[in-house]
């Protein structure tokens, strides 16, 4: 064999209604390398990997393993060839335990009965070997997203897969979990496993990848050596133009208070303590206030209470002078709250609705979109077309595309378009750029700044330190359910922010007031 490619995908073409997702794409993976697959949202990365994993069949092209042509009709064929995949949205049964999920489909049996003890030993040994500490008896719905991802990785290792596909594996992880995952990937490559790694994050590619293949709008742009290629070159290959990595904004000019939060307390679902303890702060019109913190310090519960998804046990919330403490979600929306949620599938979209239906979810009862109780489909279509072009939402069939069939990044753009375009006084943006490519991130940051400049208040909740530092006008740090610091991004450093986020430092003014 003249090359050392373990996998060759040659001239792959995959078509969906109204869109060529992969247009004559070739990708070669060497044994023992980490190979990044880079591209904008909707560039065809996940589709290409789904063809390799047997979830889709290509219309044209062939796949070779170790030089031999192979046919992959379904994921079982892929597993038999040693190919495993961690999906962007995990494929786990929430009410099963970790162990049950790992052995699902390859259950060890003796005389027709489930034989779990050997499987448990193998899972424990694998998690020790690779530093993937997971409790085999924990139930999936009770463990963190980072832990769920480890379960997906253990599923691949349990099946002795040698080719590991990671689809956007860091999109839902905290910075600490990302660091751990990248170390785990390096370890796999050292052992001779071959990794295909879909990501938008150029820092991560520079950190772990040996080579990188770039796709743009379904077409193959090129494969480069990561060490000798700059981030700027990679981003230019990805989006076809130069990208600005800094956020261009003039100093904020705060006006009157638009959101006032006083002594808000929210119970925890997982333990007896409160998740949010007596939190108070204001957001003014014309400023971006960022609630920063390591994931799991009460931000999610706070946003759920603020937006009406969960009940709070104490405190008051005032929006644009109106007490909304006990208001339902629609009342909050009509009072001027827009919400880009953390989980786009659970709280952001109705996946089986079309794109145009999703874009009017919070406005369908307004005269623009209904007459005498009947939807005005022509207005709906026009409105959807306007937002699709304004926010560059890419979809195979335009307004009638089912939301489920769109790429994660384009689903996110649709939510952002809907929330920014509707009347609002306050925009609550939770992880708004999660899973987005650099071009889309640049665009969304501009949207947040222009929302601020239009005299609205913006409350940003983010785990991305670069985003916190570049986009905010004021940073509030949340640690164990309390606000432990208020920082000015122009006068602080990432290191100082990190100390507050880890609880190692608190604002002295706060300590003094507690000491009185």
What portion of residues is helical?
Answer: 25-40%
* N- to C-terminal distance: 77 Å
| Count of β-strands | 24
Quaternary organisation = single chain
- Indicate the CATH topology of the largest domain: Rossmann fold
Structural class: alpha/beta
**Annotated CATH architecture of the largest domain:** 3-Layer(aba) Sandwich
| Unreliable stretches | 508-516
Q: Write down the domain tally.
A: 3
Fold and architecture overview:
This protein has 516 residues and is α/β, with parallel strands linked by helices. The protein has three domains: 235 residues, P-loop containing nucleotide triphosphate hydrolases (Rossmann fold), CATH 3.40.50.300; 184 residues, Rossmann fold (3-Layer(aba) Sandwich), CATH 3.40.50.300; 74 residues, no CATH class. Helix content is 33%, strand content 27%. The chain contains 18 helices and 24 strands. A six-stranded mixed beta sheet has the order 6-9-10-3-11-12, sandwiched between helices. It has a six-stranded mixed beta sheet with strand order 18-21-22-15-23-24, sandwiched between helices. The chain has a four-stranded antiparallel beta sheet with strand order 2-1-4-5, with helices on one face. Strand 4 and strand 5 form a beta hairpin. Helix 14 runs parallel beside helix 15. The protein is globular and about 70 Å long. The C terminus is likely disordered. Keywords: ATP-binding, Cell membrane, Membrane, Nucleotide-binding, Repeat, Translocase, Transport. It holds the Pfam family ABC_tran. GO terms for molecular function: ATP binding; ATP hydrolysis activity. Its main location: membrane. It is a peripheral membrane protein.
